[in-house]
Design brief:
Chain B: This is Dehydrogenase. Chain B: InterPro entries: FAD-SLDH_ssu, TAT_signal. The complex is a heterodimer of chains A (about 550) and B (about 180). Chain A is α/β, with parallel strands linked by helices and about 550 residues long. Chain A has a single domain, classed as FAD/NAD(P)-binding domain (3-Layer(bba) Sandwich). Chain A contains 11 helices and 16 strands. Classes of the chains: A alpha/beta (about 550), B mainly alpha (about 180). At the A-B interface, helix 2, helix 5, helix 8 and helix 9 of A face helix 5 of B. Bound molecules: flavin-adenine dinucleotide and iron/sulfur cluster.
């Protein structure tokens, strides 16, 4: 039975990881209560926020999602000292995520690359990083379920699918989306260099409605919001969950996880937007606050039995923070490419992420960004002081003949890349997260000897007359590692089902559990882990 | 709508009437706004506003929406102390040259305050904003002229121009004609 203070399953966070588990538990007949830090807003409001934002900040993916005082998330333009995320170390772990009902898939691009069998065995094969606690074949059925749950489209031709190794036991539920003229041209160009630019598997409805959502019609606005919900985002599932009986508490920030004398989780405590505290009890608990907020919450929740925080007897909570460090090449070409027709990311070169070189340095995935270029070039064209016909032609030329190529790198799990609690406090008086981060020599070496030369080679083949390379590694917003999975409870936080080693009724699925993240966008893997955890929870409830 | 779901006919009639009504309101609103842009923004006097549209039409060889112009003029009044004077001065230069297009007279606008203001007016129409900054005033998104220069091939992000999977098309050469706007 579900009440406003108790349920069989209590899920903290309503992002994609939280909602897929919620649905699984509801379908299995269990009561579900979800606690969400942020507000619930309509799609129309988000779209209006975006349209009404100045052209110069439209690239800021958070601009359409002003954070609420009680549920801060990173916002562009903050002064470092006031910012929600505090940094130390040579590189900034400068992530964005959304603390709203529906979470960060509101503004994800929907790119959904599976890991390869090799990605999950990098220590065995290449002697670096950590192996996963299970193999690709174990994860494969969960990938299939994820592809059908989220509505991930992709090519039917096996040679165009990723990964090339390992099993694919079922086709994508929808065909690949067509390429834009720029993508067709880019594919032809890189082919001359021997690279295959293949269709991205993406959580976007291709040519047909799916799951009650319409077909993608090429609004080219997937980041920061799909106006028609053709791209999957977790907000689209919330009504369905409520119809199935879930209780959803919003504007409710969980700040403490409480344990019993047996060190099981007894309850979670949250502040509402008036700073009033409430307690929610349950049988099973899921922390689905994302790979950064989960470790923060665990570290905040200390008690006599767990002096270093919940689930942290290994001292690994908050360590091994990973992402896909990225560098971009902004290329000016002689001939037009015309980025910006169709979805914002629609293809990629994945094969460059694999190879025996991984014993020496990281691999990289290259993608052609298909964002319409007007907002990137208009100010530069205007600054040239042109008027009339010359100005029109210059804007048109720069829109057609500039493109962004991004190289996203594989980082290794490193315990020194660590989230801790800052002395600085947020509006509720809770500590802000502080992250020490260094992309490491593995990534830097790749950039020097591998990904930068390939990027330049591609740019030249595109007919570049100018190449601007981003001066530092940017974050890809794929938050991984902070509650790492392993078989050995002394050096990992969760087991193969994302169950905390220390607490038998606590599940911490999602990016935090990933032991290695390779180069491809990782939400599909986070969701696959969530479904696997959900199966384990259903079994556990059966035995309960 | 949900309340009437037991009565499909009623629902249909209501929703059609609702649509017609809102359509009529929208049309009336658009007409009123374009015939008499001052109704929305009383802060800028009508004379200055129509002078601003006259100046804008001289600086930009395209059709311009007076509602957007009214918003730009309102901001310009606040940001440029000598707004009215600069309008008159630039218009006078254009008239003296009997200018039909911006190319006919732009070079005659003296460097400095006047030239900067002329560039700002062009900036506002093309970017839809008062500046590049985070705190810029937004005059329009979808009518910013930057998007008109590519409207034959690119969507304005968040407004689709094609149907499901219908965006495959040949790669337009730069020699393709500029859209008319
Ligand atoms: C611009 C951008 C583009 C991206 N593109 C891609 C892509 O193309 N492909 C890809 O694979 N990934 C992409 N990502 C990453 C993707 O968005 C995340 O991996 C994914 O959303 C993580 O899902 P989650 O459910 O773990 O967390 P989230 O979606 O972040 O959800 C967590 C939820 O928990 C809530 N919460 C947090 N703290 C608390 C608390 N204390 N109490 C209660 N509730 C709380 C939050 O409000 C939120 O609703 C992108 C991210 C960004 C920012
Ligand atoms: S291209 Fe448009 S319709 Fe398609 S997912 Fe992106 S925003 Fe949505």
């Amino acid at each position: 039975m579900v009440t406003k203070t108790s349920a069989d399953v209590v899920i903290v966070g309503t992002g994609v990881v939280g909602v897929v588990i919620a649905e699984q538990m509801l379908d299995a007949g269990h009561s579900v209560l979800m606690i969400e830090a942020g507000p619930r807003v309509s799609r129309a409001e988000v779209v209006e926020n975006w349209r009404n934002s100045p052209l110069g900040v439209k690239g800021d993916t958070s601009v359409a999602y002003p954070s609420r005082p009680w549920a801060p998330h990173p916002m562009g333009g903050e002064k470092p000292e006031d910012a929600y995320l505090q940094f130390s170390g040579p590189d900034a772990y400068d992530q964005t995520f959304i603390r709203y009902a529906g979470g960060s898939t509101w503004h994800w691009a929907g790119t959904s690359w599976r890991l390869t069998p090799e990605d999950m065995r990098i220590n065995s094969l290449y002697g670096v990083g950590r192996d996963w606690a299970f193999d690709y074949e174990t994860l494969e059925p969960y990938y299939v379920r994820t592809e059908h749950k989220l509505g991930i489209c992709g090519p039917a031709d096996r040679t165009q699918q990723w990964p090339q190794t390992g099993t694919r036991s079922a086709p994508y539920p929808m065909p690949a989306l067509p390429f834009s003229p720029g993508e067709v041209k880019f594919t032809e160009v890189v082919k001359t260099l021997g690279y295959n630019n293949i269709p991205v598997a993406q959580a976007r409805n291709s040519g047909m409605p799916y799951d009650g959502r319409p077909a993608c019609c090429g609004n080219n606005n997937c980041v920061p919001v799909c106006p028609v919900a053709a791209k999957y985002d977790a907000e689209t599932a919330l009504h369905r969950l409520e119809k199935k009986g879930a209780t959803l508490l919003v504007d409710s920030v969980v700040y403490k996880v409480e344990t019993s004398a047996q060190n099981k989780i007894e309850a979670v405590h949250f502040y509402d937007q008036h700073k009033q505290s409430h307690r929610i009890s349950g049988k099973l608990f899921v922390l689905a606050c994302n790979g950064l907020e989960n470790p923060k919450l665990l570290l905040m929740s200390t008690d006599d039995r767990n002096p270093n925080g919940i689930a942290n007897s290994s001292d690994q909570v908050g360590r091994n923070m990973m992402d896909h460090p990225a560098r971009s090449f902004t290329v000016t070409t002689k001939e037009p490419f015309w980025s910006g027709i169709g979805p914002v990311v629609n293809s990629g070169i994945m094969e460059t992420s694999q190879g025996s070189f991984r014993s020496e340095h990281a691999g990289a995935y290259f993608r052609y960004n298909n964002f319409a270029r007007n907002r990137f070039v208009t100010f530069a064209a205007l600054k040239k002081g042109l008027v009339g016909k010359a100005l029109d032609e210059e804007i048109r030329r720069m829109t057609a003949c500039t493109a962004d190529i991004v190289a996203a790198h594989e980082i290794l799990a490193d315990p020194n890349n660590r989230l801790t609690l800052s002395d600085k406090k947020d509006w509720l008086g809770l500590p802000k997260p502080s992250i020490h981060y260094d992309v490491g020599d593995y990534v830097r070496k790749c950039w020097e000897v591998y990904s930068q030369p390939i990027g330049k080679q591609i740019a030249e083949a595109m007919g570049a007359t100018d190449i601007k390379i981003s001066p530092k590694f940017n974050n890809s917003k794929h938050i991984m590692g902070g509650t790492i999975m392993g078989k050995d409870a002394s050096n990992s936080v969760v087991d193969v089902d994302c169950r905390a080693h220390d607490h038998e009724n606590l599940f911490i699925p999602g990016g935090g559990a990933m032991a290695a993240g390779a180069c491809g966008n990782s939400t599909i893997t986070m969701v696959a882990l969530a479904l696997k955890a959900g199966d384990a929870m259903v079994d556990q409830m059966r035995g309960a | 709508m949900t309340r009437q779901s037991n009565d499909p006919n009623g629902k249909l009639v209501m929703s059609r009437r609702g649509m017609l009504l809102s359509g009529a309101t929208l049309l009336a609103g658009t007409l009123a706004a374009s015939l008499c842009p001052t109704i929305s923004l009383a802060a800028v006097d009508t004379g200055a506003q129509s002078r601003f549209m006259q100046l804008s039409s001289l600086l930009i060889n395209h059709q311009l929406n007076p509602d957007v112009g009214a918003r730009i003029a309102e901001t310009a009044t606040g940001e440029y102390k000598n707004f009215a004077g600069m309008l008159d001065a630039i218009i006078a230069i254009a008239e003296q040259k009997q200018a039909k297009t911006v190319e006919d007279f732009f070079g005659d606008i003296p460097e400095g305050e006047l030239r900067d203001f002329a560039h700002w007016v062009i900036f506002a129409w093309y970017s839809g904003c008062s500046s590049e900054k985070r705190n810029a005033k937004v005059f329009t998104y979808e009518e910013a002229l930057t998007f008109k220069t590519t409207s034959d091939i690119l969507t304005i992000p968040s407004y689709g121009i094609s149907g499901p999977n219908l965006w495959t098309r040949p790669n337009l050469p730069l020699s393709a004609p500029m859209p008319t706007f």
